[in-house]
Amino acid sequence: MSKEPEIIPFKLFYQEAPKESILKDQSIFLSNITKYNDFHFIGFGEDNVPKNSELELFTEIKPLNDNEFIIELATELPNLLPNYMGQSEYILEVPVDTKKTTKINLFVSNIMGETRYKIGTQQYVIMFPRNLETGLFLSPYFVPITNYIKILKTVTSCQFSVNGVNADDAIKNNIRKCIDTYLIILNKLLLSLNMMPEQKDIISTSIVYDSSTFDFMYIGISGINGTSDYNRILLVPEKSILLPPDYDENKSKIFYSYINGEKQIDDIEKILISSKNYLDGGLLEFAFLQLVIAAEISTSHFCYKGWEERGISKNKSKEFTSDITFSQMLNIHIFLLSPLEMQPNISFVGQVNAARKIRNKIVHESKFTLDKKEIEDFKNYIEKYIHEINKIYSFMYEKPKEIKYD
User: pTM of the predicted model, to two decimals?
Assistant: First the structure.
């Protein structure tokens, strides 16, 4: 009988901040003290454009030249990155395209801190490099000396050169692309970290970073003469709200039925969620492969059920499928097994065929050239295909699958 582990006390140690920062004057967020109203943010409106009166502050920033501005994004990671070359602050040049021709600097700091305090009814939060901690107690911040300092995990930031007729325009037209590129860079970092030998036995806090990983990102914009302004932008406002939704009796019963196991979450639904997370995180190849897998599983389930209903035993089905290709299942059998009045949409089937051809090139030739928009289009078609197959399945066998789509 194995012995239960002892419960012992632990004391956490943290990285001491160097007196001089190598990131000095290079980052709005990692080089300076930045202050925010704790409950004020900017976010995306329904037309995917940031909308908030506070954005008007950014219009005071004038362009560098030719309508150029610098957008900087920053966030605290759920992971603690290593001290690269023994340095607690560093800069990594990261390629962001397959040809490695475009590279962006990633600023990394393991010495950031955070504190909160109130003035009257207003609550503020300050993020700062800990080597600037003494500046918190001076003008214009006047943080109480007794205030609690929270040690943050790794904070990173990236800067992007963008264009716009003014700062507000530059942000509206470029912020989504900047966030997507930033997530791609962060996921390269995460994958690289997980490949390190000492990480093999450590449970990673994240599989992939996506827009739902972070409640918000810090956003700053710089212009001529070093002028800059900053705020915090909610990536998924619904995730960040502090007022919990009220479930009525019906919703509460459905919610609990998943918890207690009365309702089962469909495997295909799990794969589609995984694909969405990979897509949001910029891991395009993984996202695409998950979509193809979901389509293939859905098709296989449909065909096996159809054969079984027609008197072909499971053992016979296994023998039968050794002589049949998946392509035949997709292009012949789903039509033969469906009622004439509910035939699968041939256009959706064609998109699944196209996706499988690309998947085969990835597997056999290591070729992958799709961009995010193309994968989103495939996602739309494949989800429609799966929804249609499930609808036919439900009609024929009275066993609906509870798959929800965005």
Answer: 0.75
